[in-house]
Structure formats: C-alpha cells, structure tokens
Amino acid sequence: MAKTPTKVMLIGLDCALPHMVERYVAEGYLPTIKKLIEKGTFATHCMPPYPTVTPPNWATIGTGSFAGTHGVTDFHNHTAGTNPGNENITQNWDRERINAEFIWEAADKAGKKCVVLTYPGSAPTRMTNGVIVGGNGFHVGENRKGLPGLDSTFYVCEDFIVSTDIYPNGFRGEFADADGWEGFEALGDDPQEMEVRLPFPKSIKKPVDTTWWVLAPEGENGYEEITLATGKTADSTLCTLKKGQWSEMIFTTIAMEDGTEEEVHFRCKLIELADDLSEFKLLVGTMAPTKGWAEPAEAWNGNRITKGSIHSNGGMIMAMLGSIDLDTYVEMNENLSMWNAECAVNLLENQEWDLFYMHSHPIDWMYHLVMTDMHEGSPAVREKAWEVHRRIYELEDRMIERILSQADKDTLVVLVSDHGATPDGPVFDPYKALEPAGLAFKTDSKAMENEVNPIALSQNIPDYARSKAVPQREVYVYVNLKGRDPEGIVEPEDYEKVQREICDALLTYVDPETGKRPVALALPKREARILGLYGDRVGDVVYALYPEFGGQHGHMLPTAEYGPGKLGVLLVLNGPNVKKNFRMERSCWLWDVVPTICELLGFPKPETCEGAVLYQALKDPNFKDKELEKLREGMKRMEAAMARDSREPWDHHDCA
C-alpha cells in the first residue's frame, strides 16, 4: 500500500521561471530547490491561466477554479454600474471578491488546522480554526484592498529616505551644529545634527507629527558614523551606523492622532555618508506593527521577529525612481524573505497544522526592475542585471530552506509560481488601434496617478460621448452599451457587430515603429470561455499581445516566450507517493494543484474546484482504488464469517 502524506506545505514564488530555476540548480546556486526536484517531480509544461497576472492566478492556485468561476479576472476589478474606464477599477486583494472556496476553507470545515501567510486575497478569513496572516497586500503591513491603479497604503508607513538631497516621499534635511546632546562620548570638535520630521508616507492610520534626530560625531577622518535617535539622550538611540551598514531590528512606539500608540519594528541602512557630510542618505524601512496582522489576533503569540525586515515592494519602486542602488535593493529583498521565513517558522512551531500556504513576491519585483536590462542593456548593465537576478533566486532558496525546517518526512511540499515574465517591448495602447477605426477616443484627463506603471494600464479617461469601445484593465475592451453603461451609446442590437469591429481593429493594427502586429488574439466574450474567462467580470472583447510588445506579463499568452523570458510556471511536488527525480512532460495547469493535493491527502475538494489530478506525478496513481478493493475484500471476509456464525450448529459441517 502506497504511503501518503499527512500534511501539505505550499510555498509560492511569484513569477519564478522554471527554466531559470533549472539553470541555477545546475550551476549550484539553489541547493534547497535542487533537493526538492531530485527527490520529487518537476513539471516541464505547467501553464498559468490567462491573464497572466498575480491576483487571478493565486486565486486559481488556492481554489482549483477557472478565473470565470472564482471571479478574479485581472489585477483589478471594474465597479459594476459605473462607466467602464480605468477610473472605475480597483485592485483585487479582497476575499469578498473571490466567488470560490479556498482549499484551506474546505479543509477547515473538515477539522483540519490551516495556516496561510501573505496569500493574495485570503483576508478576511472565513475559517473557524485556521490562521490568516496578511492577505490584503504583497506583504504584512501593506494594504491594496479596493485601491485604484497601483496604489498602496501601510500600517504604519512604507520605506522612506532621510537625506541632504531630495527623494520622492522622503525627508530632506540639513546638518547644523549639535547642541544639547546628553550621554554621548567622543563627539569630536564639531559634531553635527539633523532634525528629522518623519514623513510617514502612505500611512493608513495617521501618526502625530513626530521628530527624530540624526547625530554625526566628528572623528579623526571626518564624519564616519551617525546615530538615529528619538531624542537627544543616549537612551533614546535607535541605531548607530557606518556607511553601508544595516541596523539590527529596531522596536519603538509611534504616537497616533487618535491617542493610541503603535509598537513598530523596522531596520535602517546608511547608504551614503561623505566625510564632510556633503552627502548623506539613510534608508528607513517599512514601519510595520509588531502585532495586529493575524486573524484571529490571538494566533500570533506575541513573539518578536528579530531577523529580516519588511520593505515596501521589496524596494522596487525606490530602485525604479533612483532612490536606492541595486545592491541595497537586493538586501531589502533578503530582509523581506528572511522576515517571511521567521514568521512562518514561528507560526508553524507554535500550533498544530495540517496545511500551510504562503506567497512570496521578490522574484516578480525583480523582473519588473531588471528583466529588460537582462535582455538589451549595455554589457555592464546586463552583467549587473543578471547578478541581481541570480541573487534574488538565491535568497528565496534560503527562505525555503528555513521554512522546510518545519516539514517532516510525511509532508507534501509544493513549490509553485503564478506566471512568468518576458522583457519589456513597445507599449501597446489599444487606442492606437481603436481610434483610427472610429471606435474609441480618450480625453486629456487622467484616470489614475501612479509613480510607475509596470503593467501598462491605459491612463486616460475615455471620451464616452464619442466612444463605442472602451479599453479596460490589461486585456479587455468593453462595448459602451446603452442600458448597461451610464453613458453608453451603442444600441443593444449592435452589440455583436461592435464586438467584431473591435476584434478586427485590434488584429489588423500594425505598429508603425516595428512594422509588426502587436495583437496575437482577440475574442468576443462568448468565445473567451476557452480561456476560462466568462461571467460579469470579463470584458466584451478579450485580447492578448505577442510577447515582444507590452510589459513583462499579464497580456501575454501562457505559452509566450521572448528573450530570456517565458510565461510558463514552476511546479515541483515532493513527498510521499510522489515520483522521485521525475520530469513530468504532460501539459498541466495551475488549477490542477488543488485537486492533486486533495487526492494525496484525502482532503475534501473545494466546492468550486475544476482542475484535474496530476496522476502522472504519483508513484501509485491507483492507491485509492487499491485501498477500496482491500476494504471490499475485508468486507467480504467479514460477511462470510458472520454468515457462518449465524448457521445452526448442525449446519457447521458437511458431515452433520
């Protein structure tokens, strides 16, 4: 009889590319993942759903459902009853928008203990006994629920820069003669100070105006270190740093406008310090609360996480805007991965569990930052981009190693990603195809304001009075329909005619710069069911781009390849009754993950699960049939024995 797992641990690496994993495994950079592959099954042709973007695909990995069923059909959701432009879309980081049952919710009903960490769309919890940590953003402390564009807010605030120069969302200060400091020794002949009024960028709950101080003592070789403090006494010191150093984890309290105090934890790095103070740059990491991010609240036992730290978007936006260098960027992601690992270990060590699901995002951020440089930068730029690329995979491998300390020999380990990535190409604006066809027109007014726009959303509010068609989100075009849309101009009887016109305009458009057609596929909504897209949250036309156009992922088909990138996803299975050192060549999809887990562990399938069991990955795919046959044989023996016992004594032997 095949041995089967008793627990499951799914670790999700957003945007991990299977061919890159194989490369770095072969080169010796990913020892933990190497062990999982060598003693498990590696899927060579696992595909993500379409669109190839984060919220819908993690919903699929958690429910086993198509996007049309679970209802998360893009990074954003359109607000029903409003005009169909991008001014009326908000991000899909909300359990209430998912119309399907998660695997942990089905398991919870069956009495299983489940732990879910920073999993997109998992909060608020619907479990009775399970634990949810985060879920409304990419990491603990971040909230994207219901926000427009790519906006985010934070408990208590995101990272910021304190400097003598100007940086977005930062604080620019000047040094002056230090005065009134107590308890410090050897300040030198000319110590300097900077008064820092904390900017608290993107805070949800507003802190009171808060002032900290930077002290720079003068040494023999000028200014070689600084002290960050909440006041001018030695016992108010938060950290003392030399150039290039990170602080240990800092714990302090922040006073809020509502009269409460919030204990926060964070780390700092002194990025720049000239010996004459002409250059000074201090990174202050995301100030995240030390509690309040778990459901139920008592699930977090109050232990402080002292390793790693949280950083908004892993520093991606800061790096894109030139606020930090690439080495600091990698270190920020190292901190975040380490924090996630320590949080996971703390949760799993301190309670019983049968299922653990988590999501980690550094690889995705890295591709948005350096994928294009990996493909077409100068030799020096390409070399640095590839170095960053390798280091991000390495730090995620170390995170996995730490978390696997909580898995025993009876644990099924699943390593999975949600989509791949390709380098940036020319941006495709659907208006370029639709406006010459007389279908869509835009105004000069902005639909949203973003610091950066890595998923290439159309930024302008449509001219509804003139537009038969309205581009929306990453892959949709809506018919501006009378009776449905507030400013609709298309008669219902012309609906299908306009759908066809939209498809024709998209498919025949030729980019003037490249001489190529950007659009690979355009389907009326009815035909989009073949992509798993249907229902009220799908546009009237669904389109996809060739991979040499647009951003890294989202509007490329699941099989797309371009430059060093591919859109296929990582899937590794390791544990009891899983084949060892096996390359599974069959095509499979992310919606197959949940039913395969349930089959192996005997968990109830979620009510809306639509995927298939990956029998080819199992040592004994017929183990349940064999168990049933063994039970049937046992029942027959019992029935025969009971029949003998029920006969009269003289019927017990043929000679009677």
TrEMBL record:
Keywords: Hydrolase. This is Putative AlkP superfamily phosphohydrolase/phosphomutase. Gene3D superfamilies: Alkaline Phosphatase, subunit A. It comes from Desulfobaculum xiamenense. GO terms for molecular function: hydrolase activity. It comes from the Bacteria. The keyword Hydrolase applies. The keyword Amino-acid biosynthesis does not apply.
